[in-house]
């Protein structure tokens, strides 16, 4: 039972360790990099910012509504002094014209009895107002439309920048994977060479013990093995560093165990230069950005050209305030305005802005032309590099076949005493170098293919 429990525990531990190991292929590495790489995350954040900016630009077409609340305390209220008559009624006596005797009084007759003086306040010490304002721009000679188009082009530019970041991350992930895979396969080749050389040292020891080899041959063989073991240690360190770079590119934790589940194998890719150039000029995100920048510069010229023209608008205000006019107490009031804003003279600022906008447009056009020339050269170089790596792979494969045959012959000749130890070591080193060169050619071909895909605009 104890043995059974130990076996079960060991199996569970091995299964857990296997489950925690991240198995990677080139495609899986690219997938993880696109999901986790910080360059992509940053590019997406900039794209979101541009999208919100476009939405904000659209808001310029809509009415602008605002509300304010104010309280104003007047230290002195203007007053208007005025006088007014005091009305009254008076009965006049009536006399007999002959006897001059009082015979009665007349009816009451209105007359001014005097004047009184008072002051009228033209306001109130305490003033309250709740005001709502609605303003709508009617016509700006295309300024708002062009500003909205520029905001849309900025979104397109950020999308192209995101595509460019994706393309670069794909190359980085592919390169990181194949460099790590190359390092591991190189370690395997070097270890195999070490085992072969160890067998050769053992054979040299047997020959020396039987008097068929000199001590110098044995020492040279031993020294060659020690030097190779030192190289294996260096290559192993390089493999660990390559894995660390790969982990960083794909965005996983530094200590994550990684298994590279792919073999370096010959590959071919059809590369037509004219077709590659056509695809690159149509699909490269850098060119899309520069084309958008040129359109933005053109719209900027249009906006600058209309900067000196009037803008028309309407505005309405409604308020609930206290006092209303000269009447104390809360009440409503409103007003409406239709107007235009016309900058008649700005110290030639608008003229210089217009000329500056034209200069930016020319820069954008020339920058686009220069970028197209540079991309043509990049595509040509990428196609040439891929073809060169394809030829190099075929040549290195032949070199490995020749070196393997040479080592087999060298082993037979050395056993028969027809080959010196130094010649055997040279043959063995040549085979190791050929195998490493072949692996390098296979990895470089895959990296060159990824760079060509980026050069033609695949992202």
**What is the H level of CATH, i.e. the homologous superfamily of the largest domain?**
Outer membrane efflux proteins (OEP)
Helix content estimate:
55-70%
Oligomer: single chain
Shape: rod-shaped
SS summary, helix count = 9
**Number of spatially distinct domains:** 3
Order of helices and strands: HEHHEEEEEEHHEHHEEHH
Give the biggest sheet: 4 strands, antiparallel
CATH class of the largest domain: Mainly Alpha
Which architecture of the largest domain does the CATH hierarchy give at level 2? Up-down Bundle
> What's the CATH topology label of the largest domain?
Outer membrane efflux proteins (OEP)
Tell me the radius of gyration: 47 Å
User: Largest beta sheet: what is the strand line-up?
Assistant: 2-7-9-10
Percent strand: 15-25%
Distance between the termini: 58 Å
State the secondary-structure class: alpha+beta
How many strands?
10
Uncertain spans, ≥5 residues at pLDDT below 50?
1-19
Mean pLDDT: 85
Summarize the structure.
The protein has nine helices and ten strands.
Secondary-structure map with pairings?
Blueprint: H1 2-20, E1 22-24, H2 26-36, H3 38-58, E2 64-73, E3 79-90, E4 93-95, E5 102-105, E6 109-121, E7 126-139, H4 143-209, H5 215-250, E8 258-260, H6 273-283, H7 285-305, E9 311-322, E10 331-341, H8 349-415, H9 421-455
Parallel strand pairs: 1-8
Antiparallel strand pairs: 2-7, 3-6, 4-5, 7-9, 9-10
What does this protein look like?
The chain is of the alpha+beta class. It has three domains: 22-62 and 140-308 and 346-455, Outer membrane efflux proteins (OEP) (Up-down Bundle), CATH 1.20.1600.10; 65-77 and 125-139 and 311-342; 79-121, no CATH class. Helix content is 63%, strand content 19%. The protein contains nine helices and ten strands. The protein has helices at 2-20, 26-36, 38-58, 143-209, 215-250, 273-283, 285-305, 349-415, 421-455, and strands spanning 22-24, 64-73, 79-90, 93-95, 102-105, 109-121, 126-139, 258-260, 311-322, 331-341. The strands form four sheets. A four-stranded antiparallel sheet has the order 2-7-9-10, with no helix packed on it. Strands 1-8 form a two-stranded parallel sheet. The longest helix is centred in the middle third of the chain and has 67 residues, at 143-209. Residues 1-19 have low confidence and may be disordered.
